């Protein structure tokens, strides 16, 4: 399964996620931290409250925080949903699990708030308590002012925010898996034909260039689709012109001049033009434009590729020129053609 080789670092673009995490912490007033499956932090602590900073900087109290984090994550995994609980200082924390193919790869930890109605915590589990009352009593004098400054929320507000974080994590995971699945399927498919491997096209592939991967994969799959079409009618019988036709059919994303085609065939442009017209019954410019519109129609009919991308992949200098050329041959625009074809 694809989830077997994914870590939370691959699912979350951590540089972008940290910025979003900071914004979420600012808006929700919750402190937020992302950890891997071992409980190790993979992001900085966004919006960490002064109370928790003081507690975590205390070598006597830090182990209790770490145990709460670990236990909270495990409980979230067990229930496969956000787990809301009380830490060892009876403040609210939330663990939102990140799970792929039943495999726990990390969690988004949030919280560091007090309940506006303490009675609302009656059904919440205090995940860890200490029997060392003396220790807590000694530390309290230095912590009580920080405790008073903790944000206060209703239980319903906390539930709403935890559900929002869970939905956001699910969306990120789904998008990442979809893109990884496309890449994985392409690699498998490319091993059976002449289409190059994704790793050859995108060395050093990471989740950070997913948009680039999507565009490149779409381009190559589109080219593979067009190559699968019956193009025998476009093949020539004249051996002199064969290099030009082979190049044209294998470089659909280029706009190749007549002069370059003549050079490929080792003949003069004028002689190439005469031979080409005799072979096809059309001028070179008319033939290539008609062929590109034929390919464009195939992509419009069988893919959801944007018109601007189709224009680029077929070697048109700009989308406006592509639309103008398409309308010249089909009497309607590419958008209208796609709309009526798929109706």
UniProtKB/TrEMBL annotation:
Residues 242-340 form the HTH araC/xylS-type domain. It comes from the Bacteria. SUPFAM superfamilies: Homeodomain-like (SSF46689). Coiled coil: none annotated. InterPro entries: Homeodomain-like_sf (IPR009057), HTH_AraC (IPR018060), HTH_AraC-typ_CS (IPR018062), PocR_dom (IPR018771), Tscrpt_reg_AraC-type_HTH (IPR020449). Keywords: DNA-binding, Transcription, Transcription regulation. Pfam families: HTH_18 (PF12833), PocR (PF10114). This is AraC family transcriptional regulator.
């Amino acid at each position: 399964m694809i989830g077997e080789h994914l870590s939370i670092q691959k699912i979350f673009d951590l540089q972008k996620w940290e910025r979003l995490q900071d914004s979420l912490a600012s808006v929700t007033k919750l402190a937020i931290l992302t950890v891997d499956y071992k409980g190790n932090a993979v992001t900085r602590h966004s919006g960490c409250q002064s109370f928790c900073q003081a507690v975590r900087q205390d070598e006597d109290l830090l182990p209790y925080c770490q145990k709460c984090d670990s236990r909270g994550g495990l409980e979230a995994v067990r229930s496969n949903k956000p787990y809301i609980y009380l830490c060892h200082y009876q403040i609210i924390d939330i663990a939102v699990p990140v799970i792929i193919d039943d495999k726990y790869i990390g969690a988004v930890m949030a919280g560091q708030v007090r309940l506006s109605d303490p009675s609302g915590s009656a059904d919440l589990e205090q995940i860890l308590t200490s029997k060392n009352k003396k220790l807590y009593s000694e530390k309290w004098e230095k912590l009580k002012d920080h405790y008073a400054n903790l944000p206060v929320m209703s239980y319903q507000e906390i539930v709403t925010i935890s559900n929002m974080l869970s939905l956001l994590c699910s969306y990120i995971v789904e998008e990442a898996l979809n893109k990884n699945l496309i890449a994985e399927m392409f690699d498998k498919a490319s091993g059976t034909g002449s289409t190059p491997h994704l790793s050859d096209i995108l060395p050093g592939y990471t989740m950070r260039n997913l948009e680039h991967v999507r565009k490149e994969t779409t381009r190559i799959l589109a080219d593979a689709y067009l190559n699968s079409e019956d193009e025998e009618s476009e093949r020539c019988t004249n051996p002199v012109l064969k290099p030009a036709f082979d190049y044209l059919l294998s470089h659909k994303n280029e706009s190749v001049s007549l002069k370059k085609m003549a050079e490929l065939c080792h003949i003069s442009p004028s002689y190439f033009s005469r031979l080409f017209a005799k072979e096809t019954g059309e001028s070179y410019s008319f033939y290539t434009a008609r062929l590109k519109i034929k390919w464009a129609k195939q992509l419009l009919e069988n893919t959801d590729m944007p018109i601007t991308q189709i224009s680029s992949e077929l070697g048109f200098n700009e989308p406006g020129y592509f639309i103008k050329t398409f309308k010249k041959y089909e009497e309607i625009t590419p958008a209208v053609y796609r709309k009526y074809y798929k109706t």
